[in-house]
Amino acid sequence: MKQFRFVTIFLLLVGIGFAGISGARAEIVENHDYTVLFNPQPTESGKKIEVLEFFWYGCPHCSDLHPHLKTWLKKMPKDVSFRYVPAIFRANWVPGAKTFYALDALGLKDKLHDKVYDAIHLDNLDLTNEETLFNWMAKQGVDRKKFVDAYASFSVQNLASRSAQMSRDYGLSGVPALVVDGKYLVGGKSSAQETLKTLDDVINMARKERAKK
Q1: Domains of the chain
Q2: Of 91, 188, 120, 106, residue with least CA distance to 150
Q3: Is 89 exposed, middle or buried (0-12, 13-18, 19+ CB in 10 A)?
Q4: Residues in a beta bridge with 34
Q5: What is the Cα–Cα distance from 164 to 116, expressed in whole angstroms?
Q6: Hey, which residues does 82 pair with through a beta bridge?
């Protein structure tokens, strides 16, 4: 009987141990949770850890991640800076990049960034069609001429070209893509929550690396 009680207690303790292990978050693994960029790029964030989100308005995974990312931004660590970068892999991605930069130039990014996603993924509008885009902007209360002028401006054209170059320089193959400190790439995981947990872990790794310098 004593031996039976001993075995029972032993198995119970082992079970508790395994439960504790399974409840803990395992350390992130290179080439599984994140990758190191083949060509690390210089950052523009100074002393802060830089996070870039490369996105495309037409990407359903970017659309799914976006509201969770917005929540994450509200509690982003103070030593982190964040920037959206519209990726360009194909010609039909250019209108999305120009839309983003035109909205930014007009001070309308915060107001309409989310609504562009919704127009595409909820209302099924083809905002790569410029006439559809311009009409939709007018319906949002945006001065049509001002938006068209910004969209076609030299500065927005240059920013879109830079986005295309950055997409190549960072060696990206898809979006959403979160780049940390110009070196680490976190792609879309099985869920938005998992993606952002991994982002936090990679930021912490970058923070420790910076502390060693």
Answers
A1: 30-212 (3.40.30.10)
A2: 106
A3: middle
A4: 30
A5: 20
A6: 51
Contact yes or no for 106/147 (Cβ under 8 A): yes
* Strands annotated E in 63-155: 80-86
pTM given for the model? 0.86
Give residue-wise pLDDT tens across range 130-168: 999 999 999 999 999 999 999 999 999 999 999 999 999
Secondary structure E strands in 37-157: 49-55, 80-86
Say if residue 176 is preceded by a cis peptide, omega within 30 of 0: yes
Interatomic CA distance for residues 53 and 47, integer angstroms: 19
**Are the beta carbons of 78 and 203 closer than 8 angstroms?**
no
Neighbours of 65 (CB within 10 A): 24
| Residues 6+ away with beta carbon under 8 Å from 193 | 68
In degrees rounded to 5, what are phi and psi of residue 208? -65, -35
